[in-house]
């Protein structure tokens, strides 16, 4: 899970580790493996899970679940690897 903590920043809801910038968001209604997620082009302070290819409206994308590198909380942020 991730909370928006300001107009431009998302952080881990567990430890407030900053993990993504609003400017890097691709989609706020991405369908992740476990429900709705945010899709970002970049994220920071995270560990990246296994990559998988997903067919989206805009074509085939390679995405990965991300985890907070501090508390290991699974984030609802999904990272796209170009
Ligand atoms: Zn955390």
From TrEMBL:
Cited InterPro entries: Yippee, Yippee_fam
Domain Yippee: 8-82
Domain of life: Eukaryota
PANTHER family listed in its UniProt record: PROTEIN YIPPEE-LIKE CG15309-RELATED (PTHR13848)
Name of this chain's protein: Yippee domain-containing protein
Native source organism of the sequence: Hibiscus trionum (Flower of an hour)
């Amino acid at each position: 899970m991730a909370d928006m903590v300001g107009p431009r920043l998302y952080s881990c809801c567990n430890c407030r580790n900053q993990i993504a910038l609003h400017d890097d968001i691709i989609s706020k209604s991405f369908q992740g493996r476990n429900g709705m997620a945010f899709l970002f082009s970049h994220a920071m302070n995270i560990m990246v899970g296994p990559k998988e290819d997903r067919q989206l409206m805009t074509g085939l994308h390679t995405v990965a679940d991300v985890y907070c590198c501090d508390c290991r909380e699974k984030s609802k942020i999904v990272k796209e690897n170009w």
